[in-house]
Amino acid sequence: MNRIIYLDNAATTRVREEVLEEMLPFFRETYSNPSAIYSFAGEARKAVGIARERAAALIGAKAGEIYFTAGGTESDNWAVRAVAESRADKGRHIITSRIEHHAVLHTCEYLERQGYEVTYLDVDEEGKISPEAVERAIRPETILISVMAANNEIGVLEPVARIGEIAHERGVLFHTDAVQAYGHIPLDVETMHIDLLSASGHKLNGPKGVGMLYCRENLRLGAFIHGGAQEKGRRAGTLNVPGIVGFGKAAALAGERMQERYEREEKLRDYLIDRVLAEIPYTRLNGSAKERLSNNAHFCFRFIEGESLLILLDQKGVCASSGSACTSGALDPSHVLLAIGLPHEMAHGSLRLTLSEETTKEELDYVVESLKEIVGRLRSMSPLYEDFLKQK
Ligand code: PLP
Which of 129, 187, 211, 318 has its CA 20 to 30 A from that of 161? Predict the structure, then answer.
């Protein structure tokens, strides 16, 4: 097989043809700045309005509650910082979890340096955050709870509806980082009591560098980027019209295909998980077996270095990830894997395979066969594995 097998869809996805087609005129023909007065700008303005409606429809929000940003990282930064700053007179305590994306965690750490207090909730061995623990952590001075809808490494789905309900019963704002969940699972800001929600275009077959922050209508959040009057003066900067149009189209398509896609991916994901666990010994699945994203399979292989595994998979044309910062050269094992209780040695041998609508069973068969061979080869060179066999 000499084509690429792309199983890193949690990192980013391919832009769909229909999405690209809808974006192209906004580079070449309808390229005006949507803020301009002349009628030529009207087309771009109209397209942004349609995108806003589409983006909102996917989560039961109103178009006026959507603010376009440059991606999930910006949306997370904005949500957490703006609540912290605008509610500082009410309190300076924030609740989040240990397994959030760094866009939330590092923003919380920044706020700690500004004098805020942050509670980082533990998760169970499946990566689940307990709503009861959220409730126990609430104090009179708590102003925000930020819990992700789905984890980007191990794919676990968090009980956001229940957490949102608790937040609202106790008068606390609720933000969810839905970057991995938006367009993949049903989300409804009303029934789930969500005040702020982050999403990103490139995780749902839309373009990179464009995202959104949903912000409940009655919230008076401060501006994040100062400058012009764009996005009601809260997020200044000339709008990325092609990106926003692409985001809207991707959201619309994701909504139409969600059920079908979920069912297809789930079947293939379970096929992959079952084969890997059955055919490769000393392997574990990370995250809940059932309450996980339909496209996520995340494993740890004992006695193996994840880096080596990725390099050897790459030589076979397979794009995969360890799902953690390890891939960017950091030596620390993933904070998510440590949070679910894995020892360092185990956490280093991780592999995240994330499927797309285009993934086929034939590709997965190839990947499983490759993995069997590579894991066997790496273990045969591992002194740890040798010791383990001697002790058995
Ligand atoms: N939050 C989660 C859960 C993510 O998975 C990601 C991206 O991997 C982000 C935030 C950041 O999104 P972006 O790449 O659009 O900045």
Answer: 211
How many other C-beta atoms lie within 10 A of the C-beta of residue 47? 23
Pocket test for ligand 1, best of 76, 202, 203, 335 (most atoms within 8 A of CB): 203
The rounded distance, in Å, linking the Cα atoms of 334 and 311 is 18
Q: Consecutive 10-residue runs of the chain (392 residues): their mean pLDDT? A: 88 98 97 94 96 98 98 98 96 98 98 98 98 98 98 98 98 98 98 98 98 95 92 95 98 97 98 98 95 97 94 97 62 90 92 97 98 96 91 84
State which amino acid sits at residue 143.
I
CB 148 within 8 A of CB 99: yes
Of 108, 69, 71, the closest CA to residue 92 belongs to 108
Question: What strands lie across the sheet with 283-285, from one edge to the other?
Answer: 283-285, 296-301, 350-354
CA separation for the pair 361, 367 (Å, rounded) = 10
Is-contact 135 166, C-beta < 8 A? Answer: yes
Gyration radius (Cα) of the chain, Å: 22
Cα distances (angstroms) measured from residue 269 to each of 194, 296, 318, 336: 29, 7, 16, 21
The DSSP secondary-structure symbol of 232 reads G
In terms of Cα–Cα distance, which of 174, 188, 166, 150 is closest to 60?
Answer: 188
Rounded to the nearest 10°, the torsion over CA 2, 8, 9, 11 is -140
| Nearest by Cα to 367 from 377, 357, 375 | 375
Round to whole Å and give the CA distance between 345 and 305. Answer: 9
**200 CB within 6 A, ligand 1:** yes
Instruction: Measure the CA–CA gap between 326 and 344, rounded to whole angstroms.
Output: 12
Using alpha carbons, select from 59, 65, 63 the residue that is nearest to residue 219. 65
Contact, 65 vs 199, CB < 8 A? no
Ligand 1 atom nearest residue 150's Cα: 3
What is the pTM (predicted TM-score) of this model? 0.96
